[in-house]
What does this fold into?
Amino acid sequence: MVKSKKFLSALLSVCMCSTLLLSSCGGNSPGSSDTAQGKDGVSGKVTYLTLNQEDRDYVTKLTPDFNQKFPDVKIEVVTAPYDQFDQKLQTMIAGNTPPDVTSHFGQAGFMEYYNKGMLLDLTPMMEADKYDPVAVGIPKEIADIYKIEDKYYGLPLNTYVSVLAYNQDLFDRANIPYPTADYEDKSWTWDKMLEYAKKLTVNSDNMEAATYGLEWFWAEPDMRPLYFGAKVYSDDTWTNGGNPSEVYFNSPEVINVYQKLSDLVFKDRVSPTDSIVQGLGGQSGESFTSGKIAMKPAGAWILSGTNELPFKVGIAAIPNAGNDKIRDVLYVDPLFILKGSKNPRAAYEWIKFNLEPEIQEKMIDLSGGNPPSNMKAFEKYCSFFPNIDPKDLKMVYDGGIKYGTESYNHLVNNYSQIWTIVKNETDPCLLTGKSTAADVAPAVQEKVTKLLKDMNSK
Amino acid sequence: MKLNENGRQRLNLYIFLSPWIIGLLVFTLYPIISSLFYSFTDYNIIDAPRFIGIRNYTDLMNDDLFFKSIKVTLYYTCLSVPIQLILSLALALLLNQKVPFMGFFRTSLYLPSMVSGVVMSLLWLWIFNSDFGLLNYLLSLAGIKGPMWLMDESWAIPALILMSLWLTGSGMVVFLAALQGVPVSLQEAAVLDGAGKWQQLRVITLPMISPIILFQLIMGIIDSFQTFTQAVVMTRNGGPHYATYFYVFNLYTNAFKNYKIGYASALGWLLLVTVMLLTYLIFKLSDKYVYYEGGQN
It folds into this structure.
């Protein structure tokens, strides 16, 4: 038994010090970018930071091919789990050993990196090399996403469009025609989809019998109004480096959208609650695989694994909901070189190598279906999913790129802080249905405006 | 230079202590001092730290999330610490009896404490699922419609407190050790004087283990002030509607998601000072209630 008060005090003081360790992070800013080039100009080590997932760490299998072209370059692949990716990148930078090449594989997006001055301008190397991503096979609208003031800061590795995945078995059972994959089909609208969803929904306390016509938790909460033609950020956001001067969360259009999405779950009951989605997702985390969701819009990564599902899967266009220009969210992962790179020339060659058509085709196989950015490899991608009609996939991709816009988390500066407010303030409306959109909108507007004002004043 | 016996012994002492001393200096003291320095700077890891005086501390006063995180953390602490303390003491008193299979009971109750925080959080995430979870299923058998637990801002913290009771085993083991150190002679003397079970507990057992109760109380407060895993794993970023936006989660978000290392360091130092003051206060107040067998010094 503890008999002395001094002993107890000493023990407690040691315990309290551990509190500080979370916030401490030693190190300096990255050092100068001294090069390690050999006589040919391309040699040395390139560190590539990626995720420790099968669909990302496949690159280790590509390095022998790269070394056939560049035998003097050593590619070192460093991996981190998704939820620790940003910390890993930060600690590598703080430790003065930043990776040469990476992407926004974590929660922070391209614009966050760009605004912090972390990214190297690739344009001089591309000009010296006469490298044109469009000539290589990358669509211009995709290649230009990460081009700012005529300077390339990233070249796209994977282009995910959003697709509307649907369970063909549930459609067959309800005797409803399959939705179209054609974005130009004017009859495929939000109302039509909702009509289908109501017919496909079986509300029952018996979870075995219940099915849901539509799961619509698609895109980040601040991005959802855009699909319906309502904007939340001022137009200057897209030209000034992702810094909105104004937000419109309190506009009637935005309120109407949030209410509509809340009603899907709590009034129309065609969409499952978040808790049911979690339950249906099980260990994989993907609720669509349960076979109880008839339609679900999501990034094209939802196609991975559809080959093994016990039901037939189709993909359709995201229907028209009033915005004639934008109906799709793109998730384009660029490869970029960090400013602290000690070997930018070799890093640049590694990026170019990853975008070659043959390598993009290999990537599709090795990653289990990552979509290419190079359209010369697109045929291979379309044929990768035996259960999905290649013609539908082609149409959905063409339409997705034509009507798509990049996800806001990649384009808005200080996104994490804005997201925290928008997510939490809209929870009572979108997550629990306890408040209306009109109730929550003023607080979102006020708090995001205050945050932007604080950030701009600094 | 040749060392005498005393010198050799002293050298050996420092050689054996050196791994710990180096570890303390490099991995504990240096980060702590660094964080104090960073708390007076604007530092985003990419650019060199820029000295801004006490602005990080003054900015805290205008930060809604800072106050929300304090409120959430205090709410959790005020409920979870006393409940855990009472429950672990009650369990220890029960398991201090001489009954068959006591080893089995003690092991079973301690076992959950050996499960890692993340695994425990994932397990309870399923238990709390309002549509598929075990808890609401059991409530439904009694005709009660269970709440949405972690999805409901009113129920999220009570749910986490309920989950924290799973860990009473670790506190129970400490109390059990303390109870076994209570001199039997005192108990016997009390019995001879006609003291009942309740009186024995009140006037002998509790005073004798009072330093341990104090220790557990302070450790419980420190632990609950540092609640973090649940907000990341179970409620996905402090929701719903900030209901689980704990102080340390706010600190972590600022450091590793918002790239505000200086601001996060200020949060860390404020927490340290608060916990130190609170501990000092509890120590001062405890003078009247805690009995030290070896005296105050």
